[in-house]
């Protein structure tokens, strides 16, 4: 993506759409743009109260925004509103200031995670559902991702394949407990970094960390 953007700086980096619940609540042809504009403003200001106010105007009802955690590669917030599943907003750090190796940095963060999850959702049901995201590139502080919030008693969004595509192998290289959320008897992968995706019939690696 970085090479494409360097050659064609006007390339669209947004993938996906708003959660269906949000579309049904907002009912506006400009709903996607309005929400993206509000997220962009929030990325710049990190003003939670202002962000809640902007979203509440768009949704025409009270919207709650809660910071969940901050990691090496981004900050995660939970967005809640009536008549909708809860949504996680991950805002990626512009620069990964951590002690991870260079190869590990290439496996995580704004350049790779959104692409990984967008592909995985088309072929597998073992990853959290991603709705909308902007793929990050160097020198741009605007990468984010909207996914389903998974907590106790949450019903998994089934608007993606009911089973894994037999021709693809999915493996996460980071097998720590924070990578998963247990939903009933199932474990759903919520960390989109360090995912190996391979086409079984050809041995082709879909993920490329180089």
Secondary-structure blueprint of this entry?
Blueprint: H1 2-7, E1 14-16, H2 20-26, H3 31-45, H4 48-59, E2 63-70, E3 74-81, E4 87-92, H5 102-107, H6 113-123, E5 130-134, E6 144-148, E7 168-172, E8 180-183, E9 186-189, E10 195-199, E11 204-205
Antiparallel strand pairs: 1-5, 2-3, 3-4, 4-6, 5-6, 7-10, 8-9, 10-11
Helix pairs in contact: 3-4
Give a written overview of the molecule:
The protein has 210 residues and is of the alpha+beta class. The protein has one domain (2-152, 160-205). It has six helices and eleven strands. It has helices spanning 2-7, 20-26, 31-45, 48-59, 102-107, 113-123, and strands spanning 14-16, 63-70, 74-81, 87-92, 130-134, 144-148, 168-172, 180-183, 186-189, 195-199, 204-205. The strands form three sheets. It has a six-stranded antiparallel β-sheet with strand order 1-5-6-4-3-2, sandwiched between helices. The longest helix is centred in the N-terminal third of the chain and has 15 residues, at 31-45. It starts with a helix and ends in a 5-residue tail after the last strand. The model has no long low-confidence stretch (mean pLDDT 83).
Features of this protein?
three-stranded antiparallel β-sheet; six-stranded antiparallel β-sheet; 6 helices; 210 residues; 26% strand; alpha+beta; 27% helix
Indicate the radius of gyration in whole angstroms. Answer: 17 Å
Q: Give the total of domains.
A: 1
The order of strands across the largest sheet is 1-5-6-4-3-2
Question: Biggest sheet, open or closed, and with what strands and sense?
Answer: 6 strands, antiparallel
Helix proportion: 25-40%
């Amino acid at each position: 993506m970085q090479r494409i953007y360097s050659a064609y700086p006007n390339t669209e980096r947004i993938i996906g759409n708003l959660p269906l619940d949000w579309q049904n609540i907002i009912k506006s042809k400009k709903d996607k743009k309005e929400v993206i504009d509000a997220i962009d403003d929030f990325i710049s200001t990190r003003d939670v109260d202002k962000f809640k106010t902007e979203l509440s105007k768009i949704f025409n009802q009270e919207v709650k925004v809660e910071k969940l955690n901050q990691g090496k590669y981004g900050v995660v917030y939970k967005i809640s509103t009536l008549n909708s599943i809860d949504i996680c907003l991950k805002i990626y750090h512009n620069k990964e200031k951590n002690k991870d190796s260079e190869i590990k940095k290439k496996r995580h963060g704004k350049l790779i995670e959104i692409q990984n999850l967008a592909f995985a959702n088309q072929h597998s049901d073992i990853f959290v559902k991603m709705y909308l995201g902007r793929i990050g590139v160097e020198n741009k502080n605007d990468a984010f991702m909207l996914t389903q919030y998974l907590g106790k008693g949450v019903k998994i969004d089934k608007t993606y394949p009911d089973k894994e595509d037999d021709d693809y192998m999915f493996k996460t290289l980071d097998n720590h407990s924070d990578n998963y959320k247990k939903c009933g008897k199932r474990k759903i992968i919520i960390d989109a970094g360090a995912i190996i995706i391979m086409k079984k019939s050809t041995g082709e690696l879909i993920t490329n960390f180089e």
